[in-house]
Amino acid sequence: MKKSFEKKYAIHVGSMKYGAHEDHLTVDREFFEHFEERMVEDGEVEVHLDMFRYDTHVDVKFKLDGYVVLNCDRCLEPYQFPISSEQRIIYSFDKEMSFKGYEVMYTDPYAAFLSIVQELYDFISIAIPLRKVPEEDVHQCDPQVISYILSEEETGNSQEEASDEIDPRWEALKKLRKLGN
Ligand SMILES: [Zn+2]
After folding, report:
1. Mean pLDDT of the chain
2. Average pLDDT for residues 131-152, to the nearest whole number?
3. CA nearest neighbour of 119 among 143, 130, 108, 103
4. Could you say which of 12, 45, 139, 141 has the lowest number of CB atoms within 10 Å?
5. pLDDT tens-digit profile of 40-52?
């Protein structure tokens, strides 16, 4: 991963004075393109950082708001899935310190900046549903695609009747489609 990219999505602890700080970042298509095996291709998520720098650690609150583009399981067309989450991580420079009940990452006390690329990617990834079946007010399936899928299913059925042996791959596919409906 390029240094300039990591620096863009980072907390610049080296120059950070003790006390409260704020920052704002945007996660977009360009961000996702840096991941080879990405779950998302496109989107726009605003990230607000509320930080407090102590001698020994930085307490960071992440607020994510926006959307990612997913493909509908039924018709494979893209739709906007809203992302809205709040997270908190304590970046500690001291391995001896414990922060019970908090998510803690121990970091190099001499680092100029802390990359938060992976954190942002993970926050978005965990928000993505396994089943991508959007509500009708978000996305309406293309009726042409749906009728095509249905007609394919009908053809599959008539073939089954003609032969006793059912291709197990077709069965698996039909089950998947039923789940998606
Ligand atoms: Zn659809």
Report:
1. 87
2. 86
3. 103
4. 12
5. 999 999 999 999 9
CA of 130 to the centre of ligand 1 (A): 15
Element holding 155 (H helix, E strand)? helix 143-162
Q: Tell how far the Cα of 122 is from the centroid of ligand 1, in angstroms.
A: 26
pLDDT beyond 70 at 180: no
Distance 178 CA to ligand 1 centre (A): 14
**Interval between CA 132 and ligand 1 midpoint (Å):** 9
Task: Tell me the CA–centroid distance for residue 80 and ligand 1, in Å.
Answer: 11
Q: Which string of b and e fits 79-118 if b means at least 16 CB within 10 Å?
A: bbbebeeebebbbbbeeeeeeeeeebeebeeeeebbbbbe
